[in-house]
Amino acid sequence: MKELVSKHILLGLTGGIACYKSAELCRLLIKSGATVQVVMTQATGQFITPVTMQALSHRKVYVSQWDAREPNNMAHINLSREADLCLIAPCSADFIAKLAHGQADDLLTLLCLARPLDKLPLLIAPAMNVEMWKHPATQRNVAQLARDGTYVLGVSCGEQACGETGDGRMLEPAQLLDEVIARFQPKSLAGQHVLITAGPTYEAIDPVRGVTNLSSGKMGFAIARAAREAGAAVTLVAGPVSLTTPYGVQRIDVRSAENMLEAVMQKASTASVLIATAAVADWRPMQASEQKIKKDGSGQVPMLTFVENPDILATLAQSARAQNGELFCVGFAAESHDLLAHAQAKRVRKGVPLLVGNIGPATFGQDDNALLLVDEVGHLELPRASKISLARLLIADIARRISSGAK
Ligand code: C5P
After folding, report:
1. 263 is a domain residue
2. Contact status, residue 68 vs residue 40, Cβ threshold 8 Å
């Protein structure tokens, strides 16, 4: 999806091994529709060449304040006035220290200092050795930058170029792309804690078999990403799915409906919004066999007895916090026909203010979907679009309801 069309990104590279990831990041930004102007420090040239970054960004790289392309010799002003966002990736410990002190002795530090604070957001993706990252001086500088209004992105943990292991690796290009896209989304859920269930559940019959369904979890994961983009703290309780966790989202993996209910109950006391997208199995085998049930050759099939699973959404919708308006509950309905009638009936049955209907066979496993939002007074159709686009519209709708005091 071209989510960065008409956005102009200043991509600053400072000296570090992680520069190789910035080549891929530049590609991803361009593929998302952004225009990218790369600016390098002198030291960056030890790790990656301007030629590489020029080829990927389709623009000549700037290294010097005295670049002949700027007739007024004010590259720091010109570059920082035409951009929508500035991302320094990788951002070295030395560069962080310079930013924290407002030093401005090369083009990249100059343009960071010269940027209008209210117009050009600055994101930094730190990348350094674990001891350098942990050092009190670096942590002090990072805290100072956050106070100054810089968005300090996290670091990941793992093996480092120097052979040591720990925190300090730069985030992956796809995560950085998501962070850039997120910066342009309205922060309509700032201060909220959104709890989301997603995916199918798996109800064991014996150690090797179980009952599950075709839910892919994609809609719930898209909503988790959109909620986080909107500034919420997000907890995603996921059944067995093979999807990447959206960056910045806390994920709790569960298997059965009972596991899912337990995880949701643990988090519900601090949540302000519950969005139940999970396709929870209605029933589970009463007693999972401890050993694999074997065929005995007689042609007899085992008789399984099922019991009903707890209804997670209905349970939470009846809780005191939901009843007194502290927890806004949203349900989903996957139907095959008569969507509006079924969604309206389900909203009442579940006791939720908002129920989102979709056609099961047309959404399971797909990257796009169509939604029908049903509340007490009427309904709203969100026509077929990518799941992330629909998720953003749904989150904006929920934010409007919360801010208008809906229960
Ligand atoms: O009853 P049905 O499964 O159609 O209801 C769908 C809605 O209820 C979804 O929001 C789903 O996540 C939620 N649900 C639940 N626990 C169940 C069954 C459904 O939270 N046991």
Report:
1. yes
2. no
Domain end, chosen from 183, 212, 243, is at 183
Q: Give me ligand 1 centre to Cα 346, in Å.
A: 9
Q: Whose CA is nearest to atom 17 of ligand 1?
A: 311
Nearest atom in ligand 1 to 334's CA: 4
pLDDT digits (tens, 9 = 90+) for 223-280: 999 999 999 999 999 999 999 999 999 999 999 999 999 999 999 999 999 999 999 9
How many domains does one find in the chain?
A: 2
Asked whether residue 3 is assigned to any structural domain, the reply reads: no
Quote the domain boundaries for residue 149: 8-183
Q: What is the separation of C-alpha 174 from the centre of its chain, rounded to a whole number of angstroms?
A: 11
In a domain, 236, yes or no: yes
Say yes or no: 150 and 281 in one domain. Answer: no
Does ligand 1 come within 6 angstroms of the Cβ of 276?
yes
Query: Of the residues 308, 309, 311, 318, which should be mutated to test ligand 1's pocket, given the most ligand atoms within 8 Å of the CB?
Result: 311
Looking at the structure, do residues 266 and 361 belong to the same domain, yes or no?
Answer: yes
Residues 6+ apart with CB under 8 A from 69: 60, 62, 75
Radius of gyration of the chain (CA): 25
Co-location of 160 and 202 in the same domain: no
Q: Across the strands, what pairs with 10?
A: 37, 86
Q: What is the pTM of this model?
A: 0.94
> Three-state SS across 7-76?
CEEEEEECCCCCHHHHHHHHHHHHHCCCEEEEEECCHHHHCCCHHHHHHHHCCCCECCCCCCCCCCCCHH
CA of 386 to the centre of ligand 1 (A): 23
Q: What CA–CA distance (Å, rounded) separates 88 from 33? A: 19
